[in-house]
Amino acid sequence: MKKFKKIYIEITNQCNLSCSFCPKTKRKSHFMSVEEFTHIINATKVQGENFYFHVMGEPTAHPHFADFLKIAKDNGVKVNITTNGTLLDRVGDAIIENTPRSVSVSMHSFEANSLNKDMIAYLDKIMDFCRKSIGSGITVELRLWNFDRESIYDKNKLNGQIVDYLEEQLSLDFDLRNAINAKFDEMETSNSRKFNFRLKDRIFLGMAQHFEWPDINKAERYCDGFCYGLRNQIAILASGDVVPCCLDSEGNIILGNIHQNSLQEIFESERAQAIYTGFTHRKAVEPLCQTCGYMKMYDKKK
To answer: Are the CB atoms for 281 and 206 separated by under 8 Å?
Structure first.
């Protein structure tokens, strides 16, 4: 039976923000029911090592988010949450209680929105959750995935303020800006687009370059490349449709539906096998894959 390191379950495709870096989705709005989610967990739990509650959408905005965490925990599923952090004051206690493996907070979402809100109040929510998480066994990653090769700070005006806030609030015993600059220098001699390092206890800072999502309408295509889609990961959209990876925001490569087919049947389908075999030979057979920057990056590392 095929097993995956990562299975993405999009519990909702709706978000409470509108980030400039997000491709959004035109798919029909849907929040998974408890019954739908329970079926998906039962249908996939033996085939996944780690489960992620997103593709599009903000998972913590789901009215049954806490219920889903408990269902996953009761089934022995390792959960990983990616959130914009705006609702951590509401759902933080439920997260701590159900101890997912990790929580990644996309702090760059604040600057990516036209928010008439206080950034410090936003960061205070995140920091309060970080403090509560200490000793729980949860790994927290604070993300700033918005810099480019030329600059970490200049084009993202709030990054410096956020970094200074983290250094002060976590009472770090090292200069965080200097540590970040050293990591940035290391990147210049590698193909990496991101780095991650420990701030305190199980709290980490993750920084990464801007990423351009694949787009089926892009004119530029490249057929040579490699991807871990269908090798290490697979994604289940809010509708139950299954796609090869978490970057198929519009469901362009639907391989089947988890409410109608088993994951094994979907993986063994003709279209899925064509994708898998293509990447075995460093070839992208799907038009969407031919526009993906991750595919080019992975190919360079091989």
So the answer is: no
Residue 301 has pLDDT above 60, yes or no: no
Beta-sheet strands, E only, within 26-158: 48-52, 79-83, 102-106, 139-147
The answer, as to whether pTM is greater than 0.90, is: yes
* 3-class SS of residue 110: coil
In angstroms, how far is CA 4 from the centroid of its own chain? 16
Q: What is the pLDDT of residues 175-216, one digit of tens each?
A: 999 999 888 888 777 767 788 989 999 999 999 888 788 999
Nearest-5° Cα angle at 6, 4 to 10 = 125
Chain mean pLDDT for the chain: 92
Query: Could you give the CA distance from residue 109 to residue 61 in angstroms, rounded to a whole number?
Result: 15
Per-position b or e across 125-140, b if 16+ CB within 10 A of its CB:
bbbebbebbeeeebbb
DSSP designation for 67: H
Q: Scanning the structure block, which residue is given the tokens 């199980």? A: 202
Distance of CA 281 to the CA centre of its chain: 27
* CA nearest to 284, candidates 227, 232, 241: 227
Task: Give dist(CA 62, CA 15) in Å, integer.
Answer: 9
The C-alpha atoms of residue 286 and residue 274 are separated, in whole angstroms, by 9
Q: Which two tokens mark 134?
A: 């200490």
- DSSP class of residue 13 equals S
Nearest to 106 by CA among 167, 16, 32: 16
In the chain, where do the E strands start and end? 4-9, 48-52, 79-83, 102-106, 139-147, 194-200, 203-209, 233-236, 241-243, 256-257
